[in-house]
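Hi support team,

I submitted a single chain yesterday and got back a structure, but I'm not sure I'm reading the token output correctly. Could someone confirm the output below corresponds to the sequence I sent? I've pasted both exactly as they appear in my results page.

Thanks,
R.
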Amino acid sequence: MLEVLSLSFNELKGNIPGELWNLSSLQWFDLARNSFTGTIPPSFGNLSNLMVLELSENKIQGEIPCEIGFLSSLTNLLLGMNNLNGEMPQSIFNLSRLEELALDVNELSPPSNSPLGLAHERVSYYELLRATNNLDQVNLIGRGSLGSVYKGIFSNGTTVAVKVFDLDVQGALKSFDIKCQILRSIRHINLVKVVTSCSNLDFKALVLEYMHNGNLNQWLYSPNYFLSIAQRLRIMIDIESAIEYLHRGYSSPIVHCDLKPSNILLDEDMVAPVGDFGIAMLLTNDRRMEMTKTLGTIGYMAPEYGYAGLVSTSVDVYSYGILLMETFTRKKPTDEMFLGQLILRSWVFGSLPNGIAKIVDVDLLNVDRENIRAKHEMLLTLIIECTVDTPEERLNIKDVLIRLKKIKIRVQEQQNRGRLNE
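Hi R., thanks for writing in. Yes, this is the structure output for that exact sequence:
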């Protein structure tokens, strides 16, 4: 039985052969970056085992059939950069396993009867005031450079986070527009979901999915919080999966530009979506952009971004490396101990090969002192390759993700052996 069919990056033309839509054993169906025409037939609902459908960058026309709802195993639906039109079928939102949805550069409209949160329909200013009790400070979750975030509860009982932009701050209006442009076109389990938005001349706000467990910064630095090494690895893999999607899963690469613990949120299952796209950049075809003003956070910015305003996907790799160091040492790059030539990177690198126990978060040492060195040597090697000064020498995001998953497997194997020896 055929389970994987991958014919991407060819010069195939014409209609997609009808018999392919009846291969019920298919789990991975990839015909991206060809020149296929025609429509998607209703018979594609027969692909009941399908997990990945990748048809982006073709010339497929017509509507998405409502039979999409039959594909209950679907995790990735990538139909961007075609000539699709019409109303998105309501059944697309019944796909409970869907992690990645890309429909950009088509002429699709949201379903007319979609519930709040699925079509990004606007919400009124007065509805937001009621949901947040007039933006009461009791509901304030946090403040950022471009605005404040409040907890809100709509009349139907839905709890949300409301990001209100301070329009007096330079760049806030542009930030709102960037967020709307990017977030309405992307979907991934590790990216914060936009519920809706509110926009008038004097008020701009985004309504986001509420994260019940706060953010990574709270879990690293607040009393009575603890993350095991396995949890920290899982969170870092979630972050990496999101960034890999931004860099490679969209029609143009997206660079987040401001990865830091307060922008890593945690839901009730401790899954870590990446949030706050206020200064994210859509890259041009040359995959590099020069900014006249840098807006990232000191300590997390790559050298070429901080000094020269050069933005590329490698900027996120560097920030990710700093975030990885911080997560396992519980030391901020702006900690007062780092003065002069001593910075977080040099402090970490200077611990190799024998001083790892001196820099690892003491809470991790107390839990797993015997195995801490072997686990962290693997992580530190990865960090070194993420944070070299020259962007061309850094790993790309896909390789980082592969390496991190291997480390996670090694950690799990060590833990399993430990349990067997008990």
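A quick pointer for reading it: The chain has three domains: 4-109, 125-209, 216-421. Let us know if anything else looks off.

Best,
Support desk
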